[in-house]
Each structure stands twice: as structure tokens, then as C-alpha cells.
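Good morning C.,

I know you're traveling, so I'll keep this short. The sequence:
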Amino acid sequence: MKNAIRALALVFVCLPVSVSAQSSFTITGELRDDSGKLFSGGNVCALQPVSRGLNVRDRVCVESDAQGKFVINITQPGTYQVIADKVSEGFMPPYFLFYKDPKTTNPEITLNPDHPNVSVSVRLVPKSGLITGKVIDEATDRPVGKFVVWTWQARDHNQRTHLVVTGQSGRFRIYAPTVPFQMRVAADGYDDWVMGGGVLVSLAGARKGPGSLLVRTGGNAEFAVYLKKKNPSPLEPVRDETRLPAPVQLSPPDNQVFDLFPRTTRLEWSPVAGAVSYALEVESCWKRSEEERKRLPEDGECINPSPFEEKYRLPETTYEFVFKGAQPGRWRVWAIDKDHKPGIKSSWRRFTYLK
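The C-alpha cells, ready to paste straight into the viewer:
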């Protein structure tokens, strides 16, 4: 009985100490966005530095309140970096190195018995833009069902991430870093696609070097990725005789160069017997820089095609639009029959605007 009383007394003596230890250190402060405004609902975390970055596994996180304020209770003394994110709105966590902004430093504080409570002001990293696109089999013009998108910072190839995509849509969506990035798309049975052309040797570099791109805050870079099969069939594909033939493109001629502004473009094609309407695609291409002209062949390839316009149910055999910039583009058209079945698509025709 005496032993039981001693044990119970020990529990009551130790209990306040344990509770006290759980809240013996606090980090308080306010969270602001990259423009300096107080930010509510952000995820604010305290992480301890380790030899290779930050201890993400044992991070302690809270949510900022309606006034942007937060209180993080810490049980252990030590040095902490305080960082914030809100992934749902594009503010990415900088402890993922791919999203770390080299110009931004995380506030660092030290907690110890002499300084158990520390106040700090935390700012979100700039809001990320989006990298979106579709991956298409160049021969069949159908979405590729399974592929991997690799992205990495152009100036530091170790800061990278990847996305495995499965499904029938062939589409992908990744938040971009706040610095220039490079990208490749890989799928079984296809040659790798590299942003900006060139042939990728490894994630550490490239022969002829891929291009890079900066997506600014809130922006969106959209890609149309056409993959080529490594071993295409030597046999001619079986033609579907039930599909309407491709329209003959009339104007503008292939590789037309326009030296005019505004960039009003009129497309024309011949009618197809049995067609009730037409559909077309217009894509923009990167303008080749002087460096890219040196490293890439002048083979007319559309560098980094990006969807510009997709139009359906066109009743006429003409379409007019204003192009986006002084850069190359391309277009193709196909007929739609009475059963809404798409016909064979025409080949791509290219054009370039100089101003």
C-alpha cells in the first residue's frame, strides 16, 4: 500500500512538470504575403536545421489566424527556422528545395531557458506560377497515358522535382519555382522530350543544352508535348475509310513570314464533302534566340509549342484571329461529319510574325 501511495504521489508531483515542459518555449509572430499584407490561414512551421537542410519530418506547424498572427509551442530548446506556405493558393513550402528562392532567407531564432519566448515576422515566398500541358503521341495524335515530368532549377540542377502522371487525359499540372527552370518529359517507348530542344544527357547537364523559362508570379506556362516513338512501326498505319479526309490548307502558305502589326491572321482551307463543321488548332512556338539558333538545326521544328486557340463547330472554311506575339506559330484543321466524328487532321502549317 505504501508503495502504491508513493507511486501515486510521484505521478502528481511529476505531472505539472511534464505539462510545463510541453509548452516551455513559444514562437509568436505574424505572417505576411510577399507584398507585405497580413495573411490568414497560412501554414507556419518551425524546423530545426540539420547537416543537409532542414528536419522536415519533425516540423511543428500551426495556422495563422484571421489577423495573420500565430503561436507555435515548442518542447525542445534549440535553433529553428520559421517558414510558411499555403499550397492550395500557390505559396509553396521553401523547405522543398525546388521551390526555394535563392534571394529569400528564412528567419532563424534560438530558444533556450534564458530566451523561452521569441517573436518573429514571417513572410511567404512569392506565389508560384503554373506549368501545365498535354502530352501527345506524335504519330497517333492521341494523349499518352503514362509519363513522368521532370523539372529542375536552371542554375542548380540538384533542386528538382518530378510528377508521375497516369490516366487517359495526358495532362499535367505543376507549380513552378520562382526562378528559371528546365523540364523534360519521359514515357516508356518514346524519346524524351526536352524543353527548348537539345538532347538531354542527364539531370546534371545536356548536350546542346535545353532551354529554360521563368514563370512569373501568378502566370501560367502551357506546353503541348509531342512524343516520338523510339521504334516506330515500319508498316503504314491502317487508314480509317470512314473518317473524312483532311482539308487542303490554302492560306497562308507554309512558313509564311508576316512583317505587320496588328497580327491579324486569316486562315483558309478547302471544303470537304460530307463535313458539317470544322475544327482547328493554333499553337505558338518559342522565338529562337541567337544561342538557340547556334545549337539547334533550322529544321522548322516548333520549339516548345503552346496551345493558343482551339476552335470547334466552325461553319465556314475561314477563321480569323489576332496572334499573341512576335514569334513563330503553326496551325492545322480537320472536318467534322454529321455524326460528330472528327476527320483526319491536316499537317501543321507554320508562320512567323516579326513584330
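Safe travels,
E.
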